[in-house]
Each structure stands twice: as C-alpha cells, then as structure tokens.
Amino acid sequence: MKPEQKPPSNAELTREYIDSHPSIRDCISKDLINYSSLARQIMREAGLKNEEAILAACRRYALKLSKSDFEGQIISLLNESNLEIKNRICIVIAKNEWTVLKNLEGIVKRILEEKSALQIIQSSNAITVMSEEKHLPAIQKAIGEQNIVRIREGLAEITVKSPSRIEDIPGAFAYICSMLSEHDINLVEAVSCYTDTIFVVEKDVVMRAFEILSKIIEVASEY
What does the CA dihedral 96, 98, 102, 104 come to, rounded to 10 degrees? Predict the structure, then answer.
C-alpha cells in the first residue's frame, strides 16, 4: 500500500493562494500589503482557521519575495525592447487533424520564403494559423473548407521584440498582457516565441494598444 499523503500545511496553502493571485504577490514584493487583512482573506477563501499561522506564513513568504526583483528585471528588459506593427492579419482555426498540417507544408514554405508573418499553433482541439490576409485564399485551399472551423479577418499584429534573456525572466509575458488588459484591450491571440511576444488585436484598437506598449517602453527607459 502507498503511504497516505499528508494534507498541505497552512504555509503551503498560503503560498499557493499568493502565487495564484499575481496582484497580491506583486504588492507583497513591494511591501504594500496589510498582512492581517490578507491572512483573514486567505482564511475565508481557503477555508483555514489558524490566523496566526497564516499571518506568519505570509510574512515569511514576503521575505522571500522581497529578494526577487522580477519587476525590475522586466522593466530593464523592456528598456531594450522595440515594437513592430502589421495590419491586415487573418486567423484561420482548423480541426486538429494531421492532414491539415501535412497540407499546409507547401504554403508555409512559400510564406516563409517571402518573410511574411506566420504563426501556427496546435492545441488539443484545433490548429490556429495566423498570417497576412493576402495569403488567406492559399491557406484556405491548403486546409480544405471541410476542415475550417472559423476565419477572422481585419486584425492587426503587434510584436514586442526583446533581448534573448526574456526567456529567463519570470512573468515578463504576463506583465505585458496585464498592462493591456488593464486598459480594456482584448487580445484575440497572444503568442510568445523566443524573443518575440506577439499580440493579435482587432484593428480598431491596434493604435491604442500600440500607444500603451510604447508608453510602457518609454517609462522603462526613464529608470
């Protein structure tokens, strides 16, 4: 028989709660939290009872977080980043069938040779192809109408081009996403690929999204 697993401790549950709430984690790292209020909130939402133990766990975790200046690293990264914008982007969502990927091989080769925008994402339920609208007819033909789930046109793509160390900085992608969401920018798609962080938005909000990202980079340069 396998030994019974011990239930998670108050400290473990407290850390899990904080880690699942990025805004709280960020405030803790900056020492902007009322720990007594946070402990009571964790008690209510996690069903815990020992306030003193939770309060102590919050303070211990705060010491650890205060030693990790992730935001400072992100700001430094953004200071070295730049933006690129492309209009007339389309998205084709297809069934997740191996024949779809096989049939896309020829058009993918052609698009890459032209150095046009192209991203292909495979999930458990679908294959998403993002490219420039001029390639839409060829993409549709390659995939086959019977395999197409949805097509979206009239989109725009904003790419944040960063140094390669972005791969080693926790929370960089989430930080940029949160800045856009706080300004009510809906992301149709968001993809991180090596040094490129790509956001696809509706064309009517692309300039606002671009201005927000530009401002973030501008502010970063002042640090």
Answer: 0
Residues 42 and 121 in one domain: no
| Whether residue 90 is found in the same domain as residue 199 | yes
CA distances, 217 to each of 144, 163, 184 (Å): 42, 13, 19
Residues 106 and 183 in one domain: yes
Residues 110 and 18 in one domain: no
Q: What does the pLDDT look like over 159-198, one tens digit per residue?
A: 999 999 988 887 788 888 888 888 899 999 999 989 999 9
Residues 6+ apart with CB under 8 A from 21: none
DSSP readout, 194-216? TTEEEEEEEGGGHHHHHHHHHHH
Q: Which two tokens stand for residue 108?
A: 């993918």
The more confident residue out of 151 and 79 is 151
Which pLDDT score, from 0 to 100, does residue 1 have?
47
Q: How many domains in the chain?
A: 2
Q: Are residues 108 and 190 in the same domain?
A: yes
Say if residue 38 is in the same domain as residue 140.
no
pTM of the model: 0.71
Domain with 56 in it: 10-66
Classify 45 in phi/psi space as left (phi over 0), alpha (psi -120 to 50) or beta.
alpha
Tell me, yes or no, whether 187 lies in a domain: yes
DSSP bridge partners of 191: 198
| pLDDT value, residue 170 | 77
Question: ∠20-199-188 over CA atoms, to 5°?
Answer: 80
